[in-house]
Design a protein that fits this description.
The chain has one domain (2-169, 183-403): Growth Hormone, Chain: A (Up-down Bundle). It is mostly helical. The N and C termini lie far apart (51 Å). α2 (13-20) packs antiparallel against α15 (327-357), α3 (22-41) runs antiparallel to α15 (327-357) and α9 packs antiparallel against α16 (364-403). Helix content is 83%, strand content 0%.
């Protein structure tokens, strides 16, 4: 939806990248940890309900924005909702499932985010087609642009789901190990004591996400500008590839890591993330260099599978190695790193690279190429360095789980 938004309210690529990234990431950096601490110590059901309602109301409100500033405010509100939602949802899962059975439900929660992201591309394409068809036949006189109707259509159903969740779900009892409260200072001390297990693993995946966040932000716009695709065609093609590849990758990669971990491979998570990066990064590099739209979409599919699927591994990692009473807070740290580094910096750096070193908006694809070429090797080195300490912490956590 970048092109129609820019056409209607005169927003530059750099401003769009701020809406994609830093407006969202900055809120996570400020609010994510305090909200995660609430998830560790307060009623998580109502934290989820409030998060969903704020998220959906302000997504729909974005469809009524009249300039960059109002879009920015709505985006900040959406970030607040998501910052409250994920740590609380994952904290509930940690109480409902044992350590051995936790990977799949955690992966499914994280995959729900992929469903939402991919549906935005597909819903956008469907609504644009529907409005164009109805308008052309005279059955509808549209008063709102299709991109506005898309945001409203994506946001409103979530309000109903939030109310349904509030009416039907009860707050589960916390396990005995989670009853005592843990301060942010104690959580930080625990992270520092196992610094490479946490900062190496979570930081490496945060660096990895520079590439998929840049692709999800700019690849549809790239194929529109480079190959003269319509917004509908770009939405259908990229939305389908994103949905199939990101969702399957978010389920399959954690499953592989979980199988390896059950066989005693304490370094399973960083190892699978590193292999995923080695396979996915070349596809991310080559996709923007393709000579036609079909080849570009075919190449971006594997990149999305391996790179957009890998961040779910970090969430599973937290629930593998962190003490129960700190998990939501540590999940908040990971979300902060991912959003500040991957979402906050990726789309903006891509736009700035294309502006400073290439031909600006027309060369947004070269910004994607440079991002894949530079970020991927750095992330790979960090993940490899994290393997030994992560394995040590994994085995220590297994002993703690048995003793508790």
């Amino acid at each position: 939806m970048v092109q129609p938004i820019q056409a209607e309210i005169s927003v530059s690529d750099t401003q769009m990248s701020l809406l994609f990234g830093m407006a969202f990431a900055g809120v996570f950096a400020i609010a994510g940890l305090p909200l995660a601490r609430l998830a560790d110590t307060r009623n998580r059901k109502w934290l989820i309900v409030i998060g969903v309602m704020v998220w959906c109301v302000l997504t729909a409100a974005s469809g009524l924005a009249w300039d960059f500033n109002t879009l920015l405010l709505c985006r900040v509100g959406v970030a607040m909702g998501e910052a409250a939602l994920l740590p609380a949802a994952l904290s509930i899962i940690s109480d409902l499932f044992t350590r051995e059975r936790r990977s799949l439900p955690v992966s499914m929660v994280m995959t729900a985010g992929m469903v939402g992201a991919s549906s935005s591309f597909l819903v956008g394409a469907v609504i644009i087609d529907m409005i164009a068809s109805l308008t052309a036949s005279g059955a509808l006189e549209a008063t709102l642009a299709p991109w506005r109707l898309t945001l409203i259509a994506v946001g409103l159903p979530g309000i109903v789901l939030g109310l349904l969740f509030a009416a039907t779900v009860s707050e589960p009892l916390r396990t005995a190990a989670a009853v005592s409260e843990t301060s942010l200072k104690q959580t930080w001390r625990h992270m520092v004591d196992s610094r490479w297990a946490y900062f190496g693993m979570l930081g490496g995946i945060a660096l990895l996400t520079l590439v998929p966040f840049s692709l999800s932000a700019w690849f549809p716009t790239f194929v529109i500008r480079r190959f003269d695709l319509t917004a509908q065609a770009a939405g259908y093609s990229f939305g389908t590839a994103f949905a199939l590849c990101a969702i399957s990758g978010s389920l399959i990669l954690p499953w592989v890591a979980d199988r390896l971990a059950k066989k005693g491979r304490g370094d399973a998570i960083p190892s699978v993330a590193a292999v995923a990066l080695l396979i996915g990064a070349p596809f991310a590099f080559l996709a923007p260099l393709a000579g036609d739209a079909r080849t570009a979409v075919l190449l971006v599919g594997p990149a999305i599978f391996f790179l957009a699927g890998a961040p779910t591994l970090a969430t599973v990692a937290v629930y593998m190695i962190a003490p129960l009473r700190t998990r939501a807070q540590l999940q908040g740290v990971y979300l902060m790193l991912t959003n500040v580094v991957g979402l906050g910096m990726g789309p903006t750096l891509t736009a700035l690279i294309s502006k400073w070193f290439f031909d600006g908006p027309a060369d947004i694809g070269m910004g994607l190429v440079v991002m894949a070429a530079v970020a991927s090797p750095v992330a790979l080195v960090v993940l490899i360095l994290a393997r030994r300490d992560f394995a040590r912490r994994f085995h220590a956590s297994a002993l703690e789980s048995v003793s508790s």
